[in-house]
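Case study 2.
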Amino acid sequence: MTTRRIALVVEYDGRGFCGWERQPHCETVQSAVEGALSRVADETVRVTCAGRTDSGVHALGQVVHFDTGAVRREDGWRRGANANLVAGVTVVEAREVPDDFHARFSARWRHYRYLLLNRPDRPAVLHGRVACDRRPLDLARVRAAAGHLVGTHDFSAYRASACQARSPVRTVHALDVGQRGARVWFDVVADGFLHHMVRNIVGVLLAIGAGEAEPGWAREVLRSRDRTAGGVTASAEGLYLVRVGYPARYRLPVVLPDSGVW
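Prediction:
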């Protein structure tokens, strides 16, 4: 039977799921997507993602691929999946791709954004969609510290102790910090990420911004290669997988929709 490889760009609110990866006794984003696609294809569908996200972590541009013998228009996959998906998960793009495309291994970079409200009171309308830090933050200190983490490094000190990646070496292409009033965001672009890497980086940078350590501490933690030398892990609720980059020949993704998230 002839099969086709389909790639999807998926947006989801991570609050209602136990993370991305399928689990036997808990609702996950993967199981929701596979269930919807299986109904559209009228056959069992299994998907592979660009990067697994933890419970409470969101995505604007998660990329998955699957193989199927079913014949559907590209728009049919998108519309059909969305008609069968639970609230909080949406397919925003579907495209037939060459057989050599792989959502994870074809990726050249990934972009995560961490959203934070820096104010005395916790968020209400944005509860669960952004993190909150009540401490006054000096973003000049944060940006100075962030510069120490750009480049190719051993990020052992910034990964979870349970991380199973074979190598702790990653290349951070950019680590930018922005602010608009009480809204603060961290944009991190790298060739790949270790388990909790972004959240651990943000935890260290926030401690520096609050004056609890000097900007050079970010470099000292990095050089230690020891997770216990770092700060607390920032909460999951502020983290978004924004976009995954692929070689141009795959034409994916084209344009991400406006999600309403700053």
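The longest helix spans residues 29-41.
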